[in-house]
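QA checklist item 7 of 12: single-chain prediction sanity check.
[x] sequence parsed
[x] length recorded as 297
[x] structure emitted
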Amino acid sequence: MKDKFTVTISDIEGSKNYTLNQIVKKFVLYFILFIAVVIFFGIIFIFYLSSEVEELRIKEEEINQRLLTENLNLQTKIDNQIKYYQEMREKIGEVELLLGTKTSSENVTEDFDNKVDDLTISAVQRFIVLQLIPNGPVLRHNGISANFGSRFHPIREMTEKHHGLDLRADIGTPVYAPAHGVVEFADVHRNGYGALVVINHGFGFKTYYAHLDEMVVKYGQFVSKGTHIANSGNSGLSTGPHLHYEVRFLENALDPINFINWGHSNFESIFEKEKKIPWGSLIREMMTMLNRIPKQP
């Protein structure tokens, strides 16, 4: 009997004895010890993973902050260069006016700003331009429910200018950024937009995304072209699920359809469709910036 032991279980009905082999006893003890060791090392591993995740989160925030700072510094440099360029252009226009080669400095400015025919833009430069200026579709939609321009507002019951494009889409449809930029606004807007995201792309361009169901990005976050920024919805003054999409240049609303249909295959088309933008000076400045980037040896 030395290899066996007895377990006694007592209850209101009496006591019962159970005889177990010592090997079974050892197996049970070793199994309990094994479970305890697994739990112990599991807890240690979880704490290790938690610390790693926290370090990655801190690194991600540092990278985002550095990108945001670099973007803001770059935007400041661009603004300064544009200001300097405008001053020089005005001086050149005044000189040409005095020489009699131009009848108006205003015409000189307008012609030079908008002329892009004499520019040779490489495929790489086109690609970079299309990363920085809004272009292409922002979500999969089921048609346009309201075009850009004057329309009769179904809720306010009055004719007013529609500053964007209403793209019919189911609630929860992903919305993507059409170019690099910084999130300037991500909150509920009071003027009927509902949940609204605004992205500042630099170079004077901004895009608006209204009546959202969910905002994925937050204020101050840097986003790249194709980033998932929100999900479409039906918030604010809305009669049905859709995305209200706006493209603005220096706060002036432009027809978003021209930018949605714009891409590498029809790169020059936007120059004719949106003549309010000084494409000539804009593209020249961007190309100048690209040429200043030192090439890798």
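[x] summary fact logged: Residues 183 and 199 are 4 Å apart (CA to CA).
[ ] second reviewer sign-off
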